[in-house]
Amino acid sequence: MRSWNYVVTAHKPTVVTHSCVGNFTAPDQLNLIVAKCTRLEIYLLTHQGLQPMFDVPVYGRIATVELFRPPNEAQDFLFIGTERYRYCVLHWDGRNSDLLTRSEGDASNRFGYPTDKGQIGVIDPDCQLVGLHIYDGVFKASYLCTLFLVEFAMLLLEAMLKFNYLRKQVNTFN
Length: 174
Description:
The protein is of the alpha+beta class. Helix content is about 15%, strand content about 45%. It has one helix at about 145-174; strands at about 20, 30-35, 40-45, 50-55, 60-70, 75-80, 85-95, 100-105, 120-125, 130-135, 140-145. It has a four-stranded antiparallel sheet with strand order 1-2-3-4, with no helix packed on it. A four-stranded antiparallel sheet has the order 5-6-7-8, covered by helices on one side. It is globular.
């Protein structure tokens, strides 16, 4: 007879890995956003102190958290990157008091070595580009407004470059 172990996390994470401050839930409300390994907590700053607003699990260990405000928007958006190179852009829906996913995707490459110093995610001051340093010697930049289209274009460009490389290899043998 075999014995099986059932392993489960009994407690929520308590170590703060990332934090940021901004107007995430409303233009006139100041929020503290705390990332605790695999959880995201949103607090509202009031005269009495911090009030918890929202606590949500994240599928993956959080590696990057950045708040940004796109042009012509009243409140901030939240960029989250995980250690397995997944990312998402979240937006707070004030009517339903819920998080909305504006975009999500995969930033992984088929080549390169993961960086030893940890992932770095930055957003330019004009909120048009997000830059990710997730592999040694590689800096990946994507447009925020058309994240899905840029991902598709990058995959298409990568396929075209591989095709040209293979075609050159075949031509050298002929």
